[in-house]
Structure formats: structure tokens, C-alpha cells
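User: Hi! Is it possible to get a structure for several chains at once, not just one? Here's what I have:
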Amino acid sequence: MPIRRPEPIAVRRNRRPKPKPETDALGFGRFFTDHMFMMDYEDSRGWHDPRIVPYGPIELDPAAKVLHYGQMTFEGMKAYRSPSGGIRLFRPDMNLKRLSRSNVRLGIPPIDEELVSEAIRRLVLLDRDWLPAAPGTSLYIRPFILAVEPLLGVSPSREYRLIMIMTPVGSYYEKGGDPVSIRIETEYVRAVRGGLGGAKTAGNYAASLKAQEEAASRGFAQVLWLDGVHRKYIEEVGSMNVFFRIGEKVVTPALSGSILDGVTRDSVLRLLNHWGIGTEERRIAIDEVAAACRNGTMAEAFGTGTAAVVSPIGELDWDGERLLVGNPGEAGPLTRRLYDELTGIQTGRAPDPFGWTVALDGSEEPAKPGRD
Amino acid sequence: MPIRRPEPIAVRRNRRPKPKPETDALGFGRFFTDHMFMMDYEDSRGWHDPRIVPYGPIELDPAAKVLHYGQMTFEGMKAYRSPSGGIRLFRPDMNLKRLSRSNVRLGIPPIDEELVSEAIRRLVLLDRDWLPAAPGTSLYIRPFILAVEPLLGVSPSREYRLIMIMTPVGSYYEKGGDPVSIRIETEYVRAVRGGLGGAKTAGNYAASLKAQEEAASRGFAQVLWLDGVHRKYIEEVGSMNVFFRIGEKVVTPALSGSILDGVTRDSVLRLLNHWGIGTEERRIAIDEVAAACRNGTMAEAFGTGTAAVVSPIGELDWDGERLLVGNPGEAGPLTRRLYDELTGIQTGRAPDPFGWTVALDGSEEPAKPGRD
Ligand SMILES: Cc1ncc(COP(=O)(O)O)c(C=O)c1O
Ligand SMILES: Cc1ncc(COP(=O)(O)O)c(C=O)c1O
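Assistant: Yes, the chains can be modeled jointly so their relative placement is included. Here is the combined structure:
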């Protein structure tokens, strides 16, 4: 890829902005803002043509590699509205670094993280009116990279497209902050060491759909995955990492390569350490979890992720046995404290001792002629 | 899905047919014929609007689930030209049944196999001039089903599109029938029991790209995968199942759920049994393979798949050790016999004792107004 100065981002404005949905109707990932960002890659030219264009269908050759061999990576982060009306991002550098790591695993060429960072800023500012104002709401940002070369051989693509879309979101889980019931999955496996589990890529989620569906049909909110080798060690929950407060320690599975290196996970660990609460990142056997639930030392359990922030787990179903966590029906004190602290930092309601948030200001530049 | 009589397949002809490529330039999956088949699914309507339209770009919402969560399945089969100029398919029912099984694993609604079968017939006949005539060439048929609902939640889509494209193919491997060198992969894992390995879906191939690329950069044609649990048992090779002739027995890994149930694999097993040659489907440890190579009892090794039919393996690289198979530089007698017999049956040059081939005749009906 030739070294080149980053091109300026061209902007073609949407002349027919959509009506904004009611806050109550938001849900997750259902509505999309008026614009999206795109940029193309070819082996001979590198990444080029960064542009913001009206949100709308994309054209792909039916032989585009991503449609057959799943060569793609993605990210998910949020923009939050602060009490003063400003807009903040939460640790976007972590998401861009993870995107770069995922790209390495999937054989996708490196991106210019600064350019993508600038694209995020420009896109969010352009569609800032889409950021809902109600508490708990936010604007979810989804950058993704697709292998678009029209060639059916199983080999890395020589052409890619990076796209970024945004969706205003309410609360990810229908029940909001109530503790959820989670099913421990004993049949299906999501990922295994040596596989794709550590990368944010489509195949991991494809692998989870069936288990998710079966769990949902039995009334469970999510699936808790066990490792694919021993079928014994805790991995993660749906789109969340998982934490347990057992006695006075907070434990979470170590990053083994088969789970996602969550930005929220990292933030929670840092907050806990900052608060002087002992944490352990290690292997956690399902038997240990079950024993702690049975003997009453499982004080709290929660999932962490961009979508749900910190989400209390009330019970686990293990092959029909109900394993209860803490006080039935209510989120534990640490779960609540973490939720409040994190959302406080994210929205600028609380101080940000770690310098995690990035304020987006600067009025949007006037639209330039687009080249789409 | 309401029960309904299958709709007739609408046809909109391509008024600007492309020039056909030279046979030498064919390769695999590089050129596409003038038409493609499409059909849509919504929960409320079931599959509808089966149609043949000119080959060209498809439109997808950038939030289409397949682009984020990889919910898709696909198949690959071939049409062959017989000496008399007729066209034959090889066991297409097996591919459609496997597509249906893959759909179950991916949470995709069932297809009407008869309708898709009819679509294959119509599409191949319409583009029959694309079927190259030279020996070893064929027309590869790629049906695939994409989750197209524009919704970012990780759950099965409520909208799908089935597409079928076709590509004239030369020989899959550049070196043709010469034995290839294969690298035994000891770091990456393609699939694990409980995962997606038994289904034909994008995620499995995404997981293979990195290993494939590293093997290719070291001069190996393909990767041989070991199981994800013990990292010890043979799984499959790239887009092929794998067989070893050790002494007088032919062994191949049993279908454990993590490898694809190959149509060619099944055909080879049936042919060998028909010929009175002993076969075993079982676990095969890499140590057993290595020992047989070292002590000279590894008489032949080959991969089987639609793309390459039967492809001789000349040597295996196991963490730097070169494990030699049979006589260096030449395909073994059984490998050759299987290749000749299978391609003979497929093209109609040899008798078809199993009733595996389906002759496509009937001249193509006149084009009806399309509804795309
Ligand atoms: C599989 C998986 N695990 C964990 C997470 C949590 O990661 P993060 O906190 O960065 O959102 C996510 C969501 O992004 C995920 O998809
Ligand atoms: C992973 C994998 N294994 C094996 C095969 C061989 O299957 P078949 O003989 O049906 O082509 C294929 C190709 O389809 C494949 O993709």
C-alpha cells in the first residue's frame, strides 16, 4: 500500500432527512441516521475515497467474498449526550485498536486509525440531532469492513469497503436494569482457542444464533458460553463479558483468545482496582460458579458490554438446575455502583479520572461536493 | 410460513450477454455467467418471487444481518458436459439436503428443495453456452442464502434472499493433477464440535483464511486441520475431505460434526466399497499418519471435493518435518482410479451404476416478463 497523505473526507448531504423515531420505540439497531461513512480499498491504491454519503443501500457483486467466506470485521461503540448538551465518545481508541487486531486475524489490511477516528467525529457531528436525549439512550456507532472482491476462491480479498453506520438506541434489554436469567450452554460452542473468538467478526455471532434462539424460546435472556475444549470453563455471555462477585473477590475469565477483549470489561477491572476491590482474571470452572451459587457466596454476577453497559444476572440455568445469584430480583450493590459510575463517566455526569471520554466539539464544516 | 403452491420462475433475460472467457483463463470463480437466480423470504410470506435475472450487483441495506453476524449458508455443485453435448449434474439432491441441514444449524427457514432444483435446471439451461467444453472444465453452481433484515440485534433474521450464481471453471489447483504439499496446521483451529464446522457457512472459511495465507506464503497448497479439542485428530483439508491409504485400508475421518459431510467423500466411500476395497471412517491421530509416512505404509493420500474432485497429496509438513506420501511426484493408482471413475461418471463418459447423475434436457422456455 503506497504511503500517502490522508485524503480529506468528502461529504454529500442527505437532502431528505428522515423523521426521528420516538425514544420509546428506539430499541437497538432498528433505526439508522441520515448519513453513513464509506471508504474503499484496493491492493494497488490502499484505502481511498473517504466520504460521508446519505444512508442507503449498498451495492455488492453477488460474488463478493464477504457474502461467501465471511471475511469481515466490525466494531461497536457509543456516543453519549452530556448534561450540557455536548457529545462524548467513550474510549474510541480502544475500539479502533481492537478493529486493527481483528483485521490482523482476518487477513484484512490495516486501517489508518486516525482517519477512521476523524470519520467518527465528522459523522457523529453531522448527525448529532439523532443522538437521543433521554437518560440511558445513546447513539451506537458501527464501523465494519467487508471483503468485496468478486472472486469465489477461499483466500483473502484484494478489495475492501469500510462502512460506518449509526443507530440511536434505547436500552438493549427489554427489561432494562432487572436481573436476567441466563442459560448455560452445554451443547453448542461459540469459539475455541485458535479460532476467531478473540476477534470481532461475523462468524462468532453466526455460531451463536441457534443457541441464542433455543435459550430465548425457553425464556432466557442470553446464553453463557463454556469453553470449546473442556466444556467446563466460563467464557462470556452473548455480547458481554461476564463477572462474578464471589465472597469479597470479583472474578472474570482471563483473555484466552477465544473471548472478546471487551472495552467495558477493561474499564470495569480498572474501576474495581481503583476502588481497592480485589479482582482476578483467571479460568473459572462452571463447577466453581455452581458451588458458589449453592453455598450462598455468589453475591453478584453481571455482564459487561457497550450495548448493555453493566447488566445484572439473577440466575443461571445449568442443565435444568436453577443457580441463584445474590438477592432474588434485584441488582447487587457493586453492579449498581459500576453501572452508575460508568454511565456517569460516559455521559459526563461524573468526573473522568482516567481520561476515558473524548468530547466532540467543533461545528460541522459546510458540505463539500461528494464523489459517490 | 403459509403453505402455497410454488410460484412459477419468472425470467428476465440479459440483453447484453458478456463475451465468454478463454478456457485457459478460467481459473476458479473469476467469471460469472449472464444470469442469476433470486428468491426472497419474509416471515409473513414465506419464500416468494422466484426469478432469473441478469447477473449484476445486488442491493443490501448496510445493516443487513448477514454483513454483521454472518447468518448465511451456501452450496457448491457442478454441471458437466457429456461427450454427446448434453449437460449433467452430479448428485444435486445431496447438495440441496446439505443446504437444508446447514439452514437448520444457522436458524434459516427451510427451502423448497424441489423449487431450488428446478431453478438450477432452468438457470443452467439458460446459460448453457457458458459450460466450457475442454476436459476437466465444468460450470460451478453456487446457491447461497443471506440474512437481509436490516437490524443490528444478534438474533435470526426475519428476511432472507436466496441467490444462485454460476461460474465456468478450469482446474481448481494451478498445478492440476500433481501431488500437492500440505501444511498441518498446529496453531489455528477451523471449527470445533458444537460449532459450525458441519455446516456450509461463511464463518468456517473466515476462520481458515489466516492459516491458508501463512501456508501459501511458505509454498504449501493447502492446510490440513486438526481437531480443536485435542489438536491431534485429522479433520479436513481446505475445501476438501481427506483420505489416506495406509497399507490395504483406506481411512478417512468420521463425521464428528466439525467437518463437512462432503458429497465427493460419500461418493468415494461408496465407490471403494463397490470395488471391494476396505474403508474405515474413524478418528485418525496425526501421530498415526506421521508413523505411516515414516515407516513407508502411507501408500496414498488425497483430498476430495467438488472443486478438485480427487486431488493427490504428495507430502505433509508437520511443524517442519516433511512427511512423504507414496512415490514422490506422482499420484497413486487408487487416487488416479477414483479421479477417472468419478469424472467419468460426472461427465457421462463412464456408466453410472449408482444413478448419481441427472441429465438436464428440455430446451429453455421463452423468456417471460421478469418482475425484478
Ligand atoms: C462477543 C462479545 N463479547 C463481549 C463484548 C463486550 O465488549 P465491549 O465491552 O467492548 O462492548 C461484546 C460486545 O462488543 C461482544 O460482542
Ligand atoms: C470445508 C469443506 N470440506 C469439504 C468439502 C468437500 O465437499 P464436497 O465433496 O461436497 O464438495 C468442501 C467443499 O465443498 C468444503 O468446503
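Chain A touches chain B through 67 residues (CB under 8 Å). Residues 363-372 of chain A have pLDDT under 50 and may be disordered.

User: Great, thank you!
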